[in-house]
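Predict structure. Chain length: 450.
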Amino acid sequence: MSLARRIAWRYLRRPSDRLVSAVGLVSIFGLVIGVMALVISMALMTGYRDDLKKKLLGGNAEVFVYAVGGPISDTDAALRTVRTTPGVAEAWPVLYQHSVVTTEKSTVGTEVMLKGIEPSRAQTAPMLAKVLGGHRTFATAEGESGVAVGKYLAAKLGVVRGSSISVTVPNDRGNGSFLPRSASFVVTNVYATGFYEYDAHWIFIDLSDAERLLAAPGTANLLEVKLAPRATFDRMERRYWSSIILALWGDVKDLVSGKKPPEPLFFRATNNDVIDRVIADIGRRTDHRYAVSDWRDINHQLFSMLALQQFVLFIIIGLIVFVSTFNIVSTLIMTVHEKRKEIGILASMGAEKKLVRRIFLWYGTMVGFAGSATGIVIGAAACWLITKYQLVSFGPEIAEVYFVSSIPFITRASDLLIIAGFSLLVSFLATIVPSARAARLNPVEALRHE
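Prediction complete.
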């Protein structure tokens, strides 16, 4: 250990003045609070964004293929083409339709979104596995057509597993009839995905039942395409924080100057080339007969807002850390005043000014390190407890606004490194003026009254 570091550690560990000791503890405590708040706030935004992303992709897919102006009529041919595209893991036909549901307890009718899917998708999609339940099928044991209903919607309709519901859809197939089509289903599962939009407004049935109900055999509204594992979002997201400061600063300047809102960093930091290449290949293989989109286009505005919110939140909470460094300045000034005799003795023994400066630079840095490390540990522990016991959960009224019923607080190593670096930097900057003042102290004046 260098001489400057050893003296600084001695000053920090055993201050001779109780007031200086108390102010030192307050400065560390203030830094702990600021860093802890920063860790928790960043974990909140990261967890919310990641959880929302997983639920969006868990019930859908990364890429969507659809026909403009009507359903896909030659579904089998389109599926063969899409499934053989490099980078595509699987593709499934889907039927969507706005519908009205009535039950014995809810006879006025409730508007919902009907989605017909293949039950086999539950094997690779965890969210759809929750939708289907343990039997992994929509049909009842007796072979009746079944439907999966979200828990909030089930409570609104007054149904449980085994209840019967009636689903009515408009007749828009151009067959000369204007009467709506209806069918009865048995509730085979009441699911809870944690994604409010699904749990409150969607019902799921077998694709074959949807084709019969909608009088659309062999057709699909769209094809949902799942990319190969190497192209999944989780792998691509690893680059997110690598360019966050520069990219976000560019976003803020563009927004302030009134330019067109840029593509959010949340998308730019991922490997977009993979998705773009798959989209281009699908368009070329299908002779551009279908429109091809992806999850980024659908959720562009939402994740743009989240990226900007996270940046602004970092700045606002970071001000707490910045303000807490004023306590470090006060501690150093009081320590310099208390140790002026020792500084004078060191100077009279030949100690250079840079040695005295380094002593107090080390002193402030140690205070910053202690506060930062403690704040990160406490903040990470708090996030773990909140996530484990789901302490941040919402009722249906709040979940309707935020789309999720609970938020995990996710701490990532990259986030913690950025927070630690920011905290240590501002702590170091706070030591510059007091340490320079200590270095300029005249040893004669320091020893005159001692």
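Summary: Residues 231-244, 260-271 have pLDDT under 50 and may be disordered.
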